[in-house]
Amino acid sequence: MLTAESVEEAITQLPQEELAKFRRWYAQFDADVWDAQIEADAAVGKLDALAAEALAEYERGQAREL
Length: 66
Fold this sequence. Notes:
The chain is mainly α. The protein has 3 helices and no strands.
């Protein structure tokens, strides 16, 4: 079974070029996981209260468009 420790060890042994390749891959992988979690949270309403709060602040003039 693969463990976090074994992955860490393998990463420490990568040559610089391979480490750079891994970092690019992992950044995209992590972003994809984050996006999927946000989409799942939005689909079940977990972000509704935050959105309502942000809109209320905007309507009160406490926020501005970016």
